[in-house]
Amino acid sequence: GRTSMQVEFAPYGSTFVVFRSPAGKGRPLFASNLVGFKTVQELGGPWEVSFGTNTLSFAELVDWTTRPEIRYFSGTATYRKTFDAPTTGQSLFLDLGDLSMLAQVRLNGKDLGVAWCPPWRVEITDTVKASGNQLEIDVVNGWWNQLVGDPKKERTKTNIRLPQKAKPQASGLFGPVKLLHRVAP
Question: CB–CB of 68/51 below 8 Å?
């Protein structure tokens, strides 16, 4: 009488396991929650990225702190891209790759929710179209970069004391952003 299962967790992930009947019952039982994904398409550059009223074009996804004009930006930046997608009748997911802090995803005007931990992924099956998809991703970072960029506290009032050689934290959508199909275990 034994039940064996393989369980895979995302970083800091958790799951519930519910046993509806006693183990064994004359036959071994094996279950798995392992789900694989296959890349269908990568959404490369260019990306239009808005930082408040300032809009920039990114040829590729990069850390904001590598760009002098937004090195110390803190807040929300909106990434925009139009893309076509394959129509195969399978479930389709948007994988954001890597990013700083959290992201809210909208596709064709529909809010698909917030990706707040890895894997930074949302399902888009019911929202995606064959062509002309309008993708918007709001990426948020923390206050640290603003504080580092204003050491004399001319624009930022706080009692936080930064280390003397404080550097901005990597921020933004780093990607790669991909469309994925789920692959059966």
Answer: no
